[in-house]
Amino acid sequence: MILRYTLKAAISGLQTHKSRSLLTILGIVIGVAAIMIVMSLGQGAQNLILSEIESIGSKTIVVVPGRQPKGPSDIISTLITDSLKQRDLEALKIKSNVPHLDDIMPVVFGSDSVARGNETYRPTIFGMTDLFAKIYGVYPSEGRLFDNDEVKSYSDVVVLGSKVKDQLFGADDAVGEKVRIKGKNFRVIGVFGQKGQLSFMNVDEFIAMPYTTAQQYLFGIKYFNRIIVEADTEANVPQTVYDITATLRNSHNITDPTKDDFFIQTQAQAMETVGSITSIITLFLAAVAAISLVVGGIGIMNIMLVSVTERTREIGLRKALGATNKNILSQFLIEAIILTALGGFIGIALGTAVSFGASYVLTHFLNLAWLFSFPVFAAALGIGVSAVVGLVFGIYPAYRASRLSPTEALRHE
Q1: In CA terms, which of 86, 119, 126, 298 is 20 to 30 Å from 213?
Q2: What are the two backbone dihedrals, phi and then psi, of residue 265, each rounded to the nearest 5 degrees?
Q3: C-alpha–C-alpha distance, residues 231 and 238, integer Å
Q4: In a domain, 109, yes or no
């Protein structure tokens, strides 16, 4: 019964000063909303990336030059390491070395300006084979892909991404026309349909050409940035990884595994790695956003202290009528907890609305396969932390109110 009257008194006290109560919880609302937005969009980004990786196919194996990255600088080093060469490609193609290899494709990439008349554009340029279309499920909507004969003969042919085509040709037909890269003319034989982001590349913003042509005429290199292998079945992926590793170590005269100058990624490993990285980044950003909850808690403590001062006569009157120190303490603690919990619920609603709106924009205007995700953990965390903040930062004002002398409080002006 006492708790009921204490709760009623707390709510009545908050309703008396509605504007102040709303301003008090603003910090909590912003903090919880920020956590909701960060974790919702982080989960959406993770789902998008993982679905893109999964779409590549579970039989795909990627051989990357350099050591296994342990930081950003290591990732950059894989782009310039020359440990994967033609002899490695030939060794992997030998059936006895990798029995379950179904197909293989070397990849080189870089960026350069592409010109057509007075129009220029700087896309990413990929050198590859037509296996790209099979693995990634991307085919030209106009024209065709280059074939193996054109790869072997270093043909000066290219297939444009849809955005590259629009930038250089506008509404004009591109197939059969020429573009200029590094002073050399290349004939456009195809245009990819609008596809958007796919794994580590944006198909709309790139140019594909035979890898031999890219090596010889554009990049001036004799090594590969990646070698992509497709196993014959998903069940044989682990064995294929083992065979690739053994073949490359033999090709590079490596006897100590710690000296490997390459590493291998499967789709399962890539999904696990990306999932871990995005989860860590999301949690880190959520922790940064949670700092505003502490700021909001300090704001609540300040407002509650002001409230104690303003309501000194009220406190004295309640004590004169028989309210104990415990009753006063409970009332002000409950007020603080109600404020922060209310702020938590409003923050969840606001964060959910903003996250849903962002997901809608990303899906309908940027053509991303972005799914809205409601982070249950973030919602529970927001409510829980808000209540704890209210309790922690409400203790001192509540204690101060409970220790007021009823005689002195009644004399207060």
Answers
A1: 119
A2: -120, 130
A3: 9
A4: yes
